[in-house]
Amino acid sequence: MLTDVEYDNLPNLISGCLVHEVTIGFMCLLPYLFLVYSIFHNWWIIEMAEESYKVSLHVYDLSQGLARQLSTTCFGKAIEGIWHTGIVVYGNQYYFGRGIQNAPVGTPPYGTPLKVVDLGFTHVLKNVFEAYLQEIDHRYTAETYRLLTHNYNNFSNEVAQFLVGASIPDYILNLPNEVMGSPMGALMSY
Fold first, then answer.
1. Which residues lie below 8 Å from residue 121, measured CB to CB, with a gap of 6+?
2. What is the pLDDT of residues 39-97, one digit of tens each?
3. What is the pLDDT of residue 22?
């Protein structure tokens, strides 16, 4: 990538090649090559579709309502649910289970979503998205899963930011902090 000084001096480098009637060779093309590289090294951002694809967040309560009923007794505060999320785009739901997984909408093992949150639209092509998932799959494996700090909701949040530039709702992301901030949660950390 070009430094600020090199970038600011780019017109002088190019005109220097032309003014001195130097044959444009590799050295004169070098600034152009650096400029092209600096623009396209994040190719997945550049390669976008003209049509848009709807992106939504499917939210499931893994406790199936028990968290709402028992949380005040167990944690000393009301917790609405134990949230599990998946991103829905291109007719599939993408989620973090035993690694990054996907399934046609309506077939994941969590049943019917409790909520569907509209995240917006993306212009990222499906093949670019799938390449992105391959790029991050080493961070989302069964071995890297952590219930409170690196889970399905963290995956959904990262994917949402890639596709639409927005985070998933805070009430989902902040659930581990709510649990750990309770009297019982403090005991669970030992």
1. 52, 53, 54, 55, 164
2. 444 544 445 557 899 999 999 988 888 877 776 667 677 778 888 999 999 999 999 98
3. 43
d(CA 142, CA 72): 31
pTM exceeding 0.90: no
Other Cβ atoms closer than 10 A to 6: 13
4-13, 33-42, 166-175: least confidently modelled range: 33-42
Q: How many CB atoms lie within 10 A of CB 78?
A: 11
DSSP string, 14-60: HHHHHHTT----HHHHHHHHHHHHHHHTTHHHH-EEEEEEEEEEEEE
The packing angle between helices 152-164 and 126-136, to 10°, is 140
User: What is the spatial distance between Cα 99 and Cα 112, in angstroms, rounded to a whole number?
Assistant: 21
Q: Give me the domains of the chain, ranges plus CATH numbers.
A: 4-41 (no CATH), 48-188 (3.90.1720.30)
Amino acid at 144: T
Q: Do 91 and 104 meet the contact criterion of CB atoms below 8 Å apart? A: yes
